[in-house]
Amino acid sequence: MKESISFRLNGKPIHLDVDGDRTLLWVLRTDLGLTGTKFGCGESLCGACTVVVGKEAVRSCQVPVKAVRGKDVTTIEGLEQNGKLHPLQEAFADTGGLQCGFCTPGMIMNAFALLLKTPKPTRSQIRAGMEDNLCRCAAHHRIVQAIERVSTLARGVS
Amino acid sequence: MTDDPSTFAAPPLLSAGRSLDRRDFIRLLGGGIIVLFNANLSDLMGQEARTRGYPTDFNAYLRIAGDGRVTIYSGKIEMGQGVVTSLAQMAADELSVSLDSIDMVMGDTALCPFDMGTYGSMSTRFFGPALRAAAAEAKAVLLTLASEHLKTPPDALRVQDGVVFLASDRTIRVAFGQLAKGQKIVRKLDGKAVTKSVSEFRVMGRPEKRRDARVKVTGKAQYAGDIRLPGMLYAKILRPPAHGAALKSVDTSAAARLPGVVVVNEGGIVAALHPDPEAAEKALALIKADFDAPKPAFDDKTVFAHLLSVAGEGEEREKKGDLAEGEERSVSLFEGKYVNGYGAHAPIETHTALARLEGGTMTVWSSTQTPFPNQQAIAQAIGFAKENVRVITPFVGGGFGGKSAGLQAIEAAKLAKLTGKPVQVCWSRAEEFFLDSFRPAAVVSIRSGIDGAGRICLWDYQVYAAGSRSAEQFYDVPNNLIRTYGRWGSDTPKMHLFATGPWRAPGANINVFARESQIDTMAAKAKVDPLTFRLNNTSDKRMRRVLETVAERFGWKKAAAPSSRGVGVACGIDAGTYVALMAEVRVDAATGSVKVGRIVCAQDMGVVINPDGAKMQMEGCIMMGLGYTLSEEVRFNGGQILTRNFDTYEVPRFSGMPEIETVLVKNDELTPQGGGEPAIVPVGAVVANAIFDATGARLFEMPMTAGRVKKAVVAVSRKPST
Predict the structure, then answer these.
(1) What pLDDT, in 10s, does the model give residues B282-320?
(2) Cross-chain CB nearest to B653 (options A77, A99, A131)
């Protein structure tokens, strides 16, 4: 059943007429053409589809689009501001915290939410916070370095 | 919306609609300075190219255009290994242009000459030298043109950042673009071009940031599943419950009644399609199907006995001395049998393809390591001439050897042909595990012996299903024999119930696990420190150097194992690269869980093109290697694959990340060797040896799960001490 759903997406109001039971992941990837958010496993086991709702990292493959009604949704496409990369994006690129790049948007969004909650995480907090995001190229080492680099920046993440 | 891919420029090769010889090809090329080169010199590659109707005497080219930009056309692909950066570095350095002026056009069958594919750590080793020579040749052509243009002998000229100038007066100058403008000079590389020596490197050898990093951190990088076409449908395909199961009956009527659903039951495919992939999935769930499944022949526990029973005749290699004599000289004999089950590639991007039929041409965007073989397979499957099939490879979200068969691209093309609509096939995670070409389960059996001086005098090595990669002997053993039974491919009948294939360093991981475990067992019996034992038994200079280097960086303190410290060493050779690892582990005897605290890696890979990229690959190898070592295992019962997602297929996570240190051992006398695979091959052994050092328990099966470690530790503690 189609229903009317409004929320904020990457800072802008958005209005959809969709079946509210469809997942946020596929509404983003098909109707909205935001393909930065990836499908990886379909069961919230890999984190490739991570987006941020409010201040929480969520697995968009498990979230019905009606659940974000009235909320703030941030995807990887929403981090860059006026052509300037977000510090996390800069840090992932600089440290080489990516290889094939497929898990990268989910990694960055998960780290974004982690730093919103814990601006100065310890290394073990970073590991624990990133635990359920999988990187098959095994760039873990540099992903941790990238997040540490941002967390030591004076201004933090937001 | 994303960029419309239909705006791709008209493909010069396809527009011909027929086979091309070199003359046709050159006619179709634009202007500029063009150097054709061939990186695959083997006969096999040549034959492959001939059967596909492409020019056979080159498989890549570079062009310097009138605007000074340099474009490299190659059928290789980027899947995370970093060749878009390292190959561009090579060309930029040889041409003396900035890295920014290089563009790479890769993996597009319409725009690039035939290439077999991207695998086996070959891009840098074989493609690299040819690319460098081509760039050097182009520079020589440009220098000749500049010499005419500036009316100066070439040796009075210098080149920097794409500008040729007089050595004595920098204001007298001409840019590459100016020289290339209006020209059409085509050279075929004849092998005479002189490339730079290491001391002349400006861009090579310099750590360089990934050129694809920006598009990947912003989500703009396009993978096959990210291409959107008007009117496209997403297909979900009916799969059997097990390999070997035959479809008895199928009822698609309930699925067909759903609004907007297109059902296909033709040509061996039963599928539900819809503009929304989730609606297609719901429709698929409504398709009722009955299958006849064969009785399971073996499972993940009984597979090893099965492999031995079907192995057939062995193939002998590296025969040296006499095994009987070796046995006679041995004061201690050792027998070890090492096993490892099937392994999945499990890239985070599942196999995906989008196919569109337009104007008689089938265009397929495919996540593949082998676009040209895919093109051929698609053409065959849909009954098209291969000239009428174009495969485009966007970024590939991980391959590791698993993205070669291209079944998903064939499925998408068949469905696009049947429905007349663009069709995307994106495998679910369960399909990815079901249809993967696994790293084969394998068995290695070793009989070895040492003499009274602690020298290895017997090495009788038999490997089943894995092949001999990295089993080559580098210890000084007078009586040596390696026998291989079955290969890692699926060419031994009845060996495997499902597809098998290359997996990051195919076969090498079990071979090095077995050899280096056996070496450690002998060292322990001789009560010799395992590093010293290795150094005492090899005169191979490159191996000694990586061992000594890793020991120094690790801070290795000599002691015979088990020393209860939990440290281990292992080494190996793969793709021409020498690598040694040392590790420190903690074993929880109560649970059997193993925590790897630190791994140090020393690697000699010849000349290093991009040290940062090389280190990234080493770190990735070590971290990924911990997966096959400790947790990754495909569970199956006959043709039924029980492993369906990441909850049961446990790939490495952040909590398992050790401290990793990597050292590149300088060896500029040797051309660049493989970098994407070598450091993964000793990971199993270094962990097994460290577990032995910690507990006295020897593990013979990978993955070394907590359950297996606990069992081994308990068995040791029950043995009366000697």
Answers:
(1) 999 999 999 998 899 999 999 999 999 998 888 999 999
(2) A131
- The second-level CATH assignment, the architecture, of A87-155 is Orthogonal Bundle (1.10)
Nearest-CA distance from B102 to chain A in Å?
20
**Closest-CA residue in chain A for B220?**
A36
Which strands, in side-by-side order, build the sheet including B577-587?
Answer: B567-574, B577-587, B594-604, B659-664
The better pLDDT of the pair B6, B133 is held by B133
Are A2-78 and A87-155 in the same CATH fold? no
What are B557-583's pLDDT values in tens digits?
999 999 999 999 999 999 899 999 999
- The continuous run of DSSP H or E covering B163 comes out as strand B163-166
Q: How far is B214 from chain A (nearest CA, A)?
A: 6
Q: Residue B501: what pLDDT?
A: 86
pLDDT of residue B56: 53
Q: Is A52 on the interface with B (CB under 8 A)?
A: no
Mutation target to probe the A interface, by most A beta carbons within 10 A, among B618, B654, B659 is: B654
Whether the link from the prior residue into B373 is cis, omega within 30° of 0, is no
Measure A36 CA to nearest chain B CA, in Å: 4
Domain regions of chain A by residue span: 2-78, 87-155
Residues 400-419 of B with CB under 8 A from A: 400
Is it true that the peptide bond before B506 is cis, omega within 30 degrees of 0?
A: no
Chain A's closest residue to B81, CA to CA, is: A99
Task: Identify all chain A residues contacting B400, using CB atoms and an 8 Å cutoff.
Answer: 136
Digit-coded pLDDT (tens) for B223-257 = 999 999 999 999 999 999 999 999 999 999 999 99
Each residue's pLDDT tens digit, B532-545: 999 999 999 999 99
Classified by CATH at the fold level, domain A2-78 comes out as Ubiquitin-like (UB roll) (3.10.20)
How close B380 comes to chain A (CA, Å)?
30
The pLDDT of residue B684: 98
A75 contacts chain B (CB < 8 A): yes
- Please compute the mean of the pLDDT values over residues B316-332 and round it to a whole number: 96
Q: How many CB atoms lie within 10 A of CB B454?
A: 18
By C-alpha distance, the chain B residue nearest A89 is: B217
ipTM of the complex: 0.96
The residues pairing with B158 across neighbouring beta strands, listed in sequence order, are B165
